[in-house]
Amino acid sequence: MMEIERINENTVKFYISYIDIEERGFDREEIWYNRERSEELFWEMMDEVHEEEEFTVEGPLWIQVQALDKGLEVLITKAQLSRDGQKFELPIPGNKVKDIPVDEKIEEMLDQHFHPRPGIPEDLSEDGILEFLLTFNDFEDILLLSKRTGLDHLMTKLYHFEGSYFLYVEFPEDDFEEDEIDDLLSVMLEYGNDTHVTIPRIEEYGKVIINQNVFEELRKHFG
After folding, report:
1. Which residue from 19, 31, 107, 197 puts its CA 20 to 30 A from 153's CA?
2. Which of these, 123, 19, 103, 8, lies nearest to 63 by C-alpha position?
3. Tens digits of per-residue pLDDT, 189-221?
4. Whole domain around residue 188: which residue ranges?
């Protein structure tokens, strides 16, 4: 169980033990050396912080992590953009920042979370394919989405994992313009949600429900 402390409107601190980390299905060593798994753990912890403290992630984050003997202590602060749009102003006193030890290895691994992008996490594979993952809490939402036009040409797979449905979508960069991808994702987000679960984890631990042509198959069986 994480210990969460709300410092102020913009800052929250939490502690998680290595035992708790392992009970969540993460190996103690992999959170140091596996970027994808460390990111997955980070966002899982942030989901809990949001639920308990209503600490919403909006815009850039300033993160400091201290590695203790029995766990990790993490300080999260919402950074505030200065007027020139270039620098970040931290809404906490500088002297307090200096008093917090930082583990540089974890800070480096979480570096990309300093400037989180809105929308769905995306990954460009070596083949030049943009890969997206959406989650659906209710199967009915996927059925409704399957009835929308203009989606059948997409490369899709449907997974079931930990009580939720996950839709995997591929966009070959050579076949789609950025605006077209944005439009298609906007349609899908009317029915599903973005997720911080990684594609490799879904492929390894999730159960494949439909291996291809998800929307066509759903209409065929439930149309």
Report:
1. 197
2. 103
3. 889 888 878 888 888 888 999 999 999 999 988
4. 123-222
